[in-house]
Amino acid sequence: MAYIGRSPIHGALERQALTADGSTTTFTLDYVVGSSASLVVSVAGVLQEPEVAYNIGSGGSQIVFTAAPASGDAVYVVFLGAALEVATVGSGVITSRTELSAQAAADDLVLIYDTSAGSLKKIQKSNLDTSLDITGKAELAEQAANDDELIIFDKSASAIKKIQKSNIATTMTYTKSTGTGDGSTTTLTINSGRAVDNVLVFVNGICIVPTDDYTISGTTLSFATAPSSGAEITVRYLPI
Hints:
Helix content: under 10%
Strand content: 35-45%
Strand order of the largest sheet: 1-7-3-4
């Protein structure tokens, strides 16, 4: 057979015959196609125009005629191409790749799945939202274990990192108030938010007993017995 232009080198086109009954307009195709242009359609020996005489339906699995082919008409379709089935990317495809051993550059590309478009896309690292949203996360209702990890921002590296609780330096700051006894005054004004359990009270260097020797109400520390005249009073605040 002679051809106009280059002759086919290899391959064969699939053909499907349809049975017309004068009323049916929708037929299921043997192959899923990507568009109406992927088919050559003949009705009674007349080629049909895509998007005019027929369209594709159900995601490319059906052909829908504008008008039902007449009963007895010879109807067939030739598939010029079937829709490509994209294979699922297995975990090994990722895990077998060479790991990037340095921080990704701002113009490096990352693969993401765009849920709004339902497709895999690429995105530059610089366009990733790096904010940490902890809203709605479960709260740890007990003291953190030493090997629990926290998120911190390392200013020396300008990067977010994780750190074990045991590696956090707990710097404690102690403050104090002082006074001098006069033999009659039994109260001393102290910092607010304090209780007998988180202060140490010394009179002339001797630590006196909470509740027995003094009480605290608001910003007032009350001695059970007034410190003697000239006695050095020191109230050391414990971290809370």
